TrEMBL record:
<dbReference type="Pfam" id="PF13439">
    <property type="entry name" value="Glyco_transf_4"/>
</dbReference>
<feature type="domain" description="Glycosyl transferase family 1">
    <location>
        <begin position="169"/>
        <end position="301"/>
    </location>
</feature>
<protein>
    <submittedName>
        <fullName>Glycosyltransferase</fullName>
    </submittedName>
</protein>
<feature type="domain" description="Glycosyltransferase subfamily 4-like N-terminal">
    <location>
        <begin position="18"/>
        <end position="119"/>
    </location>
</feature>
<dbReference type="InterPro" id="IPR001296">
    <property type="entry name" value="Glyco_trans_1"/>
</dbReference>
<dbReference type="InterPro" id="IPR050194">
    <property type="entry name" value="Glycosyltransferase_grp1"/>
</dbReference>
<dbReference type="Pfam" id="PF00534">
    <property type="entry name" value="Glycos_transf_1"/>
</dbReference>
<dbReference type="InterPro" id="IPR028098">
    <property type="entry name" value="Glyco_trans_4-like_N"/>
</dbReference>
Length: 343
């Protein structure tokens, strides 16, 4: 199958540090190549892939200090894909609603995976205007705010089976991984860790939009058993997560998926997560972690979570969350769309 994967240009594929969407695009692209498909990745020029790279901009926009208008490179990206569309059997976009207008009016089948939150009121008229655009959700919960969208499947994320594996060594802290912002619940994670009497290591980035929150609310909470490590890449995650007694994910928003949960599971590390968004679809309470609704429940659940069988957690990852399973799910959707277009 001739497949185009179209990624946003904000981060490289895979990202140098933080970046969930681009990381998933990388895993999917390389897995499709390994399965024998002819794949072209449209992305920034500093991307690294086993597919054919169609570089639309020299480097990731987040790392380019000269970029003032990030929309302009994305307009070029859309035009590049449009000019080459007839070379592919399927176009797979990872750019929200960007492709809806033009690509609904051309013959090559396409599909868009929605990677972000869909509970924004400005999205409602967009999806009302495009009721037939094929959409893939990354959890069933993600769909709830936009029931009118034309969903052709839900595909849970996956990781390469051996990207992250359990590492030997002491486990003497709990972990927080991802991004520091109010909705991710870093303040709750700090309070939970202190309440259970275990040090907390925080491997997370701070976006420009969250600097004020970080400086006013979180910096005063640091110290006293809370260590801020900063952003880490995939090559550091296995050791970081394997060394944790548990990953804390006290989110306060409708998480579309939550890649950190399966990253922890790949390392055999249990997760304590608040019951929001995709969490009940990813975690199995009592097997891979605990699903709670408050800080008090998280604190109470901690002793049982720490005692969970890490081998079984890893086994659950291998059964449900590999990149091969993700690629198989997408291939079935691609073939269905191709067949429908032919019919």
């Amino acid at each position: 199958m001739r497949i185009a994967q179209i990624a946003p240009l904000h981060e490289a594929v895979p990202p140098k540090l933080y970046g969930g969407t681009e990381r998933v695009v990388s895993f999917l692209t390389d897995e499709l190549v390994a399965m024998g498909h002819e794949v072209t990745l449209f992305a920034s020029g500093d991307s690294v892939t086993t597919a054919t790279l169609e570089a639309v901009w020299p480097r990731a926009l987040r790392l380019d200090p000269e970029i003032r208008d990030p929309i302009a490179p994305h307009m070029l990206l859309m035009e590049r894909v449009a000019r080459l569309a007839d070379q592919f059997d399927i176009l797979h976009f990872h750019m929200d609603y960007w492709p809806f207008t033009y690509f609904s009016r051309q013959p090559t089948p396409f599909v868009t995976t929605m990677h972000g939150r869909l509970d924004l009121k400005e999205l409602q008229p967009v999806f009302d205007a495009f009721p037939d655009v094929p959409i893939v959700s990354i959890s069933n919960n993600q769909r709830l705010p936009l029931p009118q969208a034309h969903y052709v499947g839900t595909v849970l994320h996956g990781l390469p089976e051996n990207l992250l594996t359990p590492q030997p060594g002491p486990r003497d802290y709990v972990a927080f991984l991802g991004r520091i912002c109010a909705e991710k619940g870093i303040d709750k994670a700090i309070r939970i860790a202190r309440a259970v009497g275990v040090p907390l290591k925080v491997a997370a980035k701070v976006d420009k939009a969250d600097v004020a929150y970080f400086e006013s609310e979180i910096i005063p909470m640091l110290g006293d058993g809370v260590e801020l490590i900063g952003e880490i890449g995939d090559h550091e995650k296995a050791a970081f997560l394997s060394g944790a007694r548990a990953l804390l994910m006290p989110i306060d928003w409708p998480e579309p998926f939550g890649l950190v949960m399966i990253e922890a599971m790949a390392c055999g590390t249990p997760v304590i997560a608040f019951r929001h968004g995709s969490v009940p679809e990813v975690l199995e309470d009592g097997l891979t972690g605990a699903i709670v609704t408050s800080e008090q429940e998280a604190i109470a659940a901690y002793p049982a979570v720490e005692a969970l069988d890490r081998g079984k957690i890893r086994q659950e990852f291998e059964q449900r969350f590999t990149a091969r399973r993700m690629a198989d799910d997408y291939l079935a959707i691609y073939q269905s769309l191709i067949d429908s277009r032919k019919a």
